[in-house]
Write a sequence for this structure.
């Protein structure tokens, strides 16, 4: 039985974790141009302050027994309408603290990097305000102790991402990408809102403790419906099939946005939602199976898309889809996978942030060019960027001892514990990862120079390279630290549960096979893109390549299944409104108008006309009475 610690000592500052970045956003937004000089530094300071508090809380939690590491702080009574009563309460436990650390520590590095990246942007104060707003909303999401408060943070993250993706709204593509992300995420949000309503109707509460404590008494069909609705929400926020189309377009935002929102934090919110709701998925087998299927489909979709994109950020976005797919896939495996979903989420947050920031450094030196076919031979002129990018590359493809090896390897083991077919699929996807990431490295840093005439590549300033170095160190050692020193299974088990089932073959067999497949994929990528000249103009390619360049026709499918039917329905409703509703109203008005005109003619003002009318009326009445009498 989990014992809840009082919100005392450093834990009494739980609300401050959120309040600091929220206050930074408020000051920067309301302060206007007066904050232009020092505003970005205030934004950094607030996030660093939250990171320091988070580290102190981690140390305090580690001093407590495993069953006594949950802290709940009731800030105030929030909603009280009849039996529906919800407190604005925060919950810190082993699951939420790892997210808080990821958001604040990686976030702080990205904030510092942004000082250099956005140095010449006239609106950088506003940029930092939006970053602060995002961090505050994300912290609220992972610290909420009930689904309704989580929903507030969920929507706050959606708003902040809309503002950040469309930050350069002067670009039509950025404005369109922001709207696209906002609309698609709203589809997922409908799933979350309906799920919360169903949770309240079923359990009489939306607080995690109350809901999870009553799961055993609920109908499995109801739990399946809740699980599927939560999965819909997770698919929207984490860019999973079928709501993945927004993520690639979201690369129109500044590169630090891609690193913070679309690598380290926002896209992991769906994984957090599933892991937090583990009691529901453990009891809803069909919903958990749907999670596995969605994750597996997205793993391959993202990997295939990433293999064909020439835009370095969009290739990394496809990679993000695929890696988040691994996490969702693992979470769907149940108690054998929740821990490793979070493990990979943490390592991915570090090495993918490093890769995105590395891509931003390359763009900084290449006059903001994103086309890898116009890169080549950059390892000699951008040495720090190259070395740090290589650390992230080795981590994501899973080469030991880099961090991705430990986390992705555990997911593959868990998959084989459940089913050999899905385990083999996970290994195959790892091989594709080796291919597309090697392709990216080869096209960017190796081969011949393919630079445009006005481009003069150079290393980025220290304010950008120092965060890269720190993230590269994390990409190298974090996996080992979490697995062996941090004992990630033991740490998360009290919240998400953990169990291990024997695999058909010894563990070393899966490790060796996975490494061989990854290396084969990397060799194919190297031979194709480093040993041969890369044409500046992309060749037409085969059918799959052309489909991948079109995001596997995700937008076209959405147009056919959603946009066009919606447009036609709206057009039909508009026509019905104009022709039927407005037509009836117009006809009624015309009829009354015409009738009044005719009646008005009888009002002549002559007494003889009125007398004649009265006589006529009397005669008609008399005839009617006689007819009635005779009948």
């Amino acid at each position: 039985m989990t014992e809840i610690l009082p919100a005392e000592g450093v834990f009494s500052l739980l609300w401050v974790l959120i309040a600091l970045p929220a206050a930074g956003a408020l000051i920067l937004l309301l302060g206007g141009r007066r904050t232009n000089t020092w505003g970005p530094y205030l934004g950094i300071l607030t996030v660093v302050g939250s990171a320091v508090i988070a580290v102190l809380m981690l140390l305090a939690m580690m001093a407590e027994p495993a069953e006594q590491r949950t802290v709940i702080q009731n800030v105030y009574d929030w909603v009280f309408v009849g039996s529906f009563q919800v407190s604005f309460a925060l919950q810190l436990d082993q699951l939420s603290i790892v997210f808080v650390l990821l958001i604040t520590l990686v976030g702080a590095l990205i904030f510092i990097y942004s000082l250099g990246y956005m140095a010449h942007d006239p609106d950088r104060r506003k940029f930092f305000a939006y970053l602060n707003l995002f961090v505050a909303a994300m912290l609220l999401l992972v610290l909420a102790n009930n689904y309704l408060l989580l929903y507030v943070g969920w929507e706050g993250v959606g708003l902040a991402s809309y503002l950040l993706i469309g930050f350069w709204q002067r670009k039509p593509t950025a404005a369109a990408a922001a709207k696209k992300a906002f609309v698609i995420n709203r589809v997922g949000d409908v799933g979350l809102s309906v799920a919360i309503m169903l949770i309240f109707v079923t359990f009489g509460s939306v607080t995690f403790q109350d809901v999870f404590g009553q799961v055993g008494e609920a109908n499995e069909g109801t739990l399946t419906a809740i699980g599927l609705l939560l999965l819909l929400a997770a698919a929207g926020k984490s860019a999973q099939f079928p709501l993945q189309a927004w993520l690639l377009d979201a690369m129109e935002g500044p590169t630090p946005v891609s690193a913070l929102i679309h690598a380290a934090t926002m896209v992991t919110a769906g994984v957090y939602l599933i892991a937090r709701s583990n009691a529901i998925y453990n009891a809803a087998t069909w919903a958990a199976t749907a999670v596995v299927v969605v994750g597996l489909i997205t793993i391959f979709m993202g990997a295939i898309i990433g293999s064909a994109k020439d835009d370095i950020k969009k290739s990394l976005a496809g990679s993000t889809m695929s890696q988040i797919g691994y996490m969702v896939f693992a979470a769907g495996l149940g108690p054998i996978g929740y821990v490793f979903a979070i493990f990979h989420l943490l390592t991915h947050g570090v090495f993918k942030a490093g890769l995105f920031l590395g891509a931003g450094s390359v763009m900084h030196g290449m006059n903001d060019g994103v086309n890898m076919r116009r890169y080549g031979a950059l390892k000699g002129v951008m040495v720090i960027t190259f070395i740090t990018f290589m650390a992230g590359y080795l981590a994501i493809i899973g080469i030991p001892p880099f961090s991705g090896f430990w986390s992705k390897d555990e997911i593959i083991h868990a998959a084989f514990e459940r089913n050999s077919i899905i385990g083999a699929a996970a290994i195959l996807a790892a091989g594709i990862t080796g291919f597309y990431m090697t392709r990216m490295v080869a096209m960017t840093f190796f081969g011949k120079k393919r630079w445009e005439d006005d481009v003069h590549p150079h290393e980025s300033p220290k304010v950008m390279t120092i965060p890269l170095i720190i993230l590269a160190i994390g990409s190298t050692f974090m996996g080992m630290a979490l697995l062996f020193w941090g004992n990630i299974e033991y740490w998360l088990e009290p919240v998400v549960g953990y169990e291990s089932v024997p695999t058909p073959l010894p563990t070393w067999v899966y490790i060796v096979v996975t490494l061989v497949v990854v290396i084969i994929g990397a060799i194919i990528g190297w031979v194709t893109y480093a040993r041969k000249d890369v044409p500046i103009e992309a060749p037409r390619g085969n059918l799959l390549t052309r489909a991948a360049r079109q995001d596997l026709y995700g937008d076209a499918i959405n147009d056919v299944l959603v946009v066009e039917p919606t447009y036609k329905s709206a057009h039909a409703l508009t026509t019905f409104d104009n022709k039927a509703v407005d037509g009836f109203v117009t006809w009624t008005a015309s009829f009354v108008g015409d009738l009044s005109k005719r009646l008005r003619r009888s009002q002549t003002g002559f007494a003889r006309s009125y007398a004649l009318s009265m006589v006529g009326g009397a005669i008609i009445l008399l005839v009617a009475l006689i007819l009635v009498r005779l009948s």
Q: What stands out?
A: The first helix runs from residue 14 to 31. The two ends are 91 Å apart (CA to CA). The mean pLDDT is 91. Strands lie at 4-5, 70-81, 84-92.
